[in-house]
Amino acid sequence: MIDSKTFDPNFKFLIASEPGGENIKKCFSCGTCTAGCPVREVTDRYNPRRIIRMAILGMKKEILSSDFIWLCSSCYTCFERCPQNVKIPELMNAIKNIAVREGYLPSSMKSQLDLLASFGRLLEVTDFENEKRKESNLPLLQGRTEDVKKILKKLGFHREEQDRG
Amino acid sequence: MKNRTEDSPQNSEYTLFLGCTVPVRALNYEISARKVAEKLGVQLSDAPDFSCCGYPIKSVHRYAYLLMAARNLALAEKKGLPLCTLCSACCGSLTEANHEIQEDEKLRKRINEDLFEWVGLRYEGGIRVTHFIRVLDQEVGRKKITERVRADLSSLHVAPHYGCHYTKPSTIYNRTEDPEDPKSLDELIKATGAQSVQYEDKLQCCGGGVLAIDEQVALAMAHGKLDHLRAQQADAMILICPFCNIMYEGNQRKIEKVYQTEYKLPILYYPQLLGLALGLEPDELGMKMNRIKTTELVKKINRRAD
User: Fold this and answer.
1) Interchain contact, B60 vs A139, CB within 8 Å
2) Which residues of chain A fall below pLDDT 50?
3) Which CATH number fits domain B12-131: 3.30.390.30, 1.10.287.180, 1.20.1050.140, 1.10.3720.10?
4) Which fold has domain A4-101?
5) Sheet containing B236-239, strands listed edge to edge, beginning at the edge strand earlier in sequence
6) Which portions of chain B are predicted below pLDDT 70?
7) Which residues of chain B neighbour A43 with C-beta distances below 8 Å?
8) Looking at the whole model, is its pTM more than 0.80?
9) Which of A23, A118, B189, B229 could be stapled to A164 by a disulfide with Cβ–Cβ 3.0 to 4.6 Å?
10) Measured between CB atoms, which of B52, B57, B212 is closest to A108?
11) Closest-CA residue of chain A to B50
12) Structural domain boundaries in chain B
């Protein structure tokens, strides 16, 4: 049962003020996004039309705390087809950005942030990697860059004690 | 579509943007891309201090993504050459950030203030971003490729996989190519002499975008396409993105286990196919690093005497 008393009517405005979420109110629920969604094809846990409808109704907590908002594969099929230019993958990113600010960060995304802060890349370039590159006559790469960590620290995404190796 | 086929400058020059996956997990893509670039007169220069393009944190913090992308663009701007990526997600991420920074003066100012204060860099918006495959398609051109073909690939039936970020969102690429009916990779395959196989769900996403969030969903997405390719008896699938490779080659055995089936479908990067056509040896194209053996496929190629 959905209890409309728990709805937050301002949620859609919050999303609309977030970069990428501007066009949420244009959605007229045609379902073109869901019909062509490759994720929806393999699981019913992800349904962009449903998520947008829930957001417009104001089901803030249900959406921000959900796993399903993270299931968009960012393939942009719906982005191309949406007759209302809702820019759904960007809308999902806007919702996810809000969710992170509200404290809902999936552990896999947390791990990616840690890797980026530590190495500046998702995959570490160790001596072993550079040795392999040398054997293949490829130029060597700088093992890590501190700049990404600086950026993430300034934005409050990384603390000293999280530093790796 | 602009397609310079004749009298194009012989020495187009780019800074190569490798990203995270290619220089660690897809050396065969990098090796073959550098080889064919050399053969076709495209100069790729390196900048070892590039970081991740920023794509992975777009969903977490959009501004952090823009700053990471801007940092890379600023480093590229110092070198003064257009930026060429091998990874389609890097291409999409850097192209999008580039557009925003170029078009939104207020955003550019904010980014540059932070970027300068935090890491001592500025980006003025003067860099063009492109994908290596688009360089082959639009700068080198199919005509020149066809002229340089030295081996007979006509008995190869290979399936193009465009992936997502090479064409979409089409707005950031100025609709260079129709995302619902892209042709460049098909045409580039034909330029090598190989046959381009048509198959169901040709434009479907590999699932890589949700791999970190839900592996089973990602595997299910890749599984469908492998089934469709088997139905067409394709000799190989041709990729232009290292993340698609993680799904179709890196995870092929896992998909076989989960779905109790067998594909053993060779997965090649387009520059590997092109290199074979140009007469390069499989070893020169990093084919030993292909996890699914390509021996049978290579046997189908007839070497022409020069």
Assistant:
1) no
2) 165
3) 1.20.1050.140
4) Fumarate Reductase Iron-sulfur Protein; Chain B, domain 2 (1.10.1060)
5) B195-196, B157-160, B236-239, B267-269
6) 1-11, 304-306
7) 214, 217, 220
8) yes
9) A118
10) B212
11) A145
12) 12-131, 149-303
Q: How far is A31 from chain B (nearest CA, A)?
A: 18
For residue B5, the model assigns a pLDDT of 42
B57/A92 CB distance under 8 A: no
Whether residue B169 is preceded by a cis peptide bond, meaning omega within 30 degrees of 0, is yes
User: pLDDT by residue (tens digit) across B138-185?
Assistant: 999 999 999 999 999 999 999 999 999 999 999 999 999 999 999 999
Nearest CA in chain A to B62: A97
User: Per the structure block, which two tokens stand in for B211?
Assistant: 């791999």
- Closest Cα in chain A, distance from residue B7 (Å): 30
The residue extents of the domains of chain A are: 4-101, 107-162
Q: Which helix (H) or strand (E) holds B139?
A: none
Element (H, E) at B44: strand B42-45
Q: Is A85 on the interface with B (CB under 8 A)?
A: no
| CATH value of B149-303 in 1.10.12.10, 2.60.120.10, 3.40.50.11810, 3.40.50.720 | 3.40.50.11810
